Amino acid sequence: MPLKLNLKKGQKIIINGAVLENTVDRSVSLMLLNDAAILRDNDILTAEEASTPASRVYFSIQCAYLFENDRVKHLAEYRTFLDDFLQAIPSSAEVGEEIRNAIEKEEYYLALRAARKLIDTETEIIKDNFGETV
Question: Can you give the pTM of this predicted structure?
Fold first, then answer.
């Protein structure tokens, strides 16, 4: 099933590990005609932004999703990061299980969506305890 993507000026998207940016002065549309690993600007986390335990979980899943050749390495990292996160915040066990189930089914985008919940939880904990967000 084709997927139509609309990119505003300056917006980036990653398709199968390749970063594309719209550099024209108007929105552009792309039609993707086959299956691909896609992340839009709002879903992309850079290595520099992966500075907290939850964001490291997300980043490692993101890399496993986008870079199939290094997937084994990134999945090993995700497991370590997730185990560490859940040890520190056991109340997130249900989300951790959701992530693990998605990874087991090789549904990496769904795992990313669940990992976003870890980031939200972590942000709330920091805000509640320190009065600020990361």
Answer: 0.88
